[in-house]
Write a structure and sequence with these properties.
By secondary structure, this protein is of the alpha+beta class. Helices cover 37% and strands 28% of the residues. The strands form two sheets. Strands 1, 2, 3, 4, 5, 6, 7 and 8 form an eight-stranded mixed sheet that branches.
Length: 416
């Protein structure tokens, strides 16, 4: 696809969809970009009203891949619920706010410039200490002080992307890292033990590990109202189950009540690298709109459901394996014709699909994780991947069997 986009490249109805909500594509903003000169100057002008300055703090769970092989989905959701409540409770207590939708095992908080950097570091240390005492899993935390774009309840921009990637891919359970800009805000006589991660250099500078330091003087009460994506009814049941994880009868009741067996198709498109990050951001948002447009059109023939299109990812569900595979093949072919490479993962099993409070959907479940591991962690662009679960439902004679280990878990998959 050419570097310059036009509204004529999309279905006419796409930009009439009510999509300007938290966690979904900002289609109105994308349309403004498509109707602009699509230069760096145009990008900066469009983004100026969304600029904010402060701290972005992201987290990601450690050891969850192995845990999903040992426990059921609802138990996993209850387990990852606990650290999210702690992150949110301490965050809002010192003036932060939750960012985005916390449907998976990761979190993001934004803190304005009025928050003292030493107070924030003490809060993050206290969060880790409380999680270590109370929770079955640990998290890694990454924090950066800088400028971001706050759009539809999410943080965009190079700086937000980098610290989120550091938290997800470069931290261990229980670890706290901060960026160079954050580190330089601390006074010379601070009471924290901090070492440089010498092996880790990023586009936002050096990264430092916070080893030790003072906790907050007071532990705030637990606030369970983090940016939950679930319905009030499901969340109440989840909190009740969180305190009764050994109750197998309750677990079965909730499983029967909420989970569905679905075939999950996860599609990742290749990112476009552009010299200026703001222009790249709009280019990639425009490509995401292509994904949404093609997906909605193909779903009319496939009897599937779009769950979400966010960033480089589209997630779809189907009742039948053959329909899912046909959709994936047609999707890959159509995007290849537009010079957009994709890699696709397909798995099946029990999932939780929920309507978001402000519209749209989200999903949780091991099939999503497996599809992601196959496509994003090990996959090649131009290929799609079937899990071992799919071999009983589809003809895999033309596929290549691959075995590998991710996060201590062995996978057998099929590449086509």
């Amino acid at each position: 696809m050419t570097s310059k986009f036009s509204t004529t490249q999309y279905s006419p109805a796409l930009f009439d969809i009510t999509q300007d909500i938290i966690g979904t594509l900002p289609l109105k903003l994308i349309r403004q970009w498509l109707e602009s000169e699509q230069t760096q100057e145009a990008a900066l002008k469009l983004l100026e009203p969304y600029k904010v300055k402060g701290y972005s703090v992201s987290s990601d769970s450690a050891g969850l891949t192995k845990l999903t092989k040992q426990k059921g989905l609802l138990e996993i959701l209850a387990i990852i619920n606990q650290p999210k409540e702690i992150v949110y409770s301490f965050g809002i207590a010192i003036g932060g706010k939750g960012v985005g939708i916390w449907a998976a095992d990761n979190t993001q908080m934004f803190y304005p410039t009025s928050v003292n950097p030493e107070t924030l570091l003490s809060a993050l240390l206290t969060v880790q200490r409380e999680i270590n005492k109370r929770c079955q899993i640990k998290i890694g935390l990454g924090a950066h002080y800088g400028e971001f774009y706050s759009i539809n309840g999410g943080l965009y921009g190079l700086e937000a992307d980098v610290i989120e990637e550091v938290a997800e891919n470069e931290t261990a359970g229980g670890e706290i890292v901060i960026s160079q800009d954050f580190y330089e805000l601390l006074p010379a006589n601070h009471n924290f033990t901090i070492t440089q991660r010498g092996e880790l250099a990023t586009k936002i500078g050096n990264i430092f590990r916070v080893v030790d330091g003072p906790s907050l003087p007071e532990v705030p009460p637990l606030d369970t109202k983090y940016p939950i994506p679930y319905s009030e009814t499901f969340y109440a049941d989840l909190v009740a189950y969180e305190n009764r994880l050994t109750d197998t009868n309750l677990g079965k009741q909730l499983t029967d009540k909420y989970l569905q067996n679905k075939v999950v198709v996860l599609i990742e498109r290749e990112s476009q690298e552009v010299e200026a990050h703001e222009t790249a951001m709009f280019t990639n948002l425009s490509l995401s709109a292509v994904i949404k447009d093609v997906g909605l059109r193909l779903l009319e023939q496939s009897k599937g459901t779009e769950i979400k299109v966010v960033g480089t990812i589209g997630i779809y569900t189907f009742d039948e394996a053959t329909a899912a595979l046909n959709f994936a093949q047609a999707f890959r072919q159509e995007l290849a014709a537009k010079d957009i490479a994709t890699r696709i993962g397909i798995d099946a099993g029990p999932v939780l699909i929920f309507d978001l409070a402000l519209g749209g959907k989200d999903i949780a479940g091991n099939p999503v994780n497996v599809a992601s591991k196959m496509a994003q962690d090990k996959g090649q662009f131009g290929k799609f991947y079937l899990s071992s679960t799919m071999k009983d439902s589809l003809d895999i004679s033309q596929f290549t069997e691959i075995k590998y280990t991710v996060s201590g878990v062995e996978f057998t998959i099929y590449e086509g």
